[in-house]
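Troubleshooting: if your tokenizer reports a length mismatch, compare your output against this known-good record of 297 residues.
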Amino acid sequence: MSFSNEFWSTEIYNQLLQVLEDQNIKSDERNAVFDFDNTLILGDQGYNLMYYLILNLKIHIDKDWFWSSENWIDIPVTEKQKIYNFYFSFLKNSIRINPIELLDHFLVIFEFLEKKNLELAYRWTKIFYAGFSIEELREYSKISFQDALTKELKVIQLPSGIYVQQGIRIRKIFYDLIQTLLKSGWNVYIVTASPEVAIQALANYWYLPESHIIGMKLKVKNQILLPEIEEPFTYNYGKYLAFKTFVNKPIYIAVGDSYPDIYLLENSKIPIFVNHSNKQSLLEIAKEKKFFIQNII
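Known-good structure output:
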């Protein structure tokens, strides 16, 4: 069995071991739900894919819908105009655009939205994933993920002063747990705020069926992903609501690392909060709610 106490706290390891050996848990109750970014992986594939698409000039910035006011409703007109002028000045003068500067401009806006409300920021990123066929976005997700697995783990500073994470690693502690759960007849699900098709493309890394991955669903027309989100959006209560909507089974084990995972954890029998970023306020909430706390690097 790959599941060992090498990384786990004694309390959580013993609890999980007891559950794995419990033959009285009914098959329809054997459901484990995991967050993806910064939980199953060290890093964030949603961001990583977004960076890849922008840096390689794959985004559909030349489309009218990209600049539609409804996609920029929470953003100051001056900021939108600044990036619009930046991009089209390059086209007008036939000068090659600097992808790093383009990424930096977009991340300034993302951080502006993030300070207002992280859900607003996540919802805004839909414009970067739209305009592709499902297969195209799947392929870009695979390429960017494989590339990130080989890159050195480090933080890079952009011209504006914004820092971005380079590199991704699969967390062995949860990989081993998932493989043990699967071998023991459990159903394992991933619920993520990242684009659903992008994370489904990576399901084979954990030997999971793609149907067990629930994420941000973009509407599709003529096989092309639209800059429109199908509700419920997998953020905060929406994560739990999406699981209940598409799976509708009780959650026995839930694992997550952030505020948007709290509802999933609250509605599970074994809630495991992944503590890795020294976010004291979030850690205090986890303690108040009596979640199991697993410290990782």
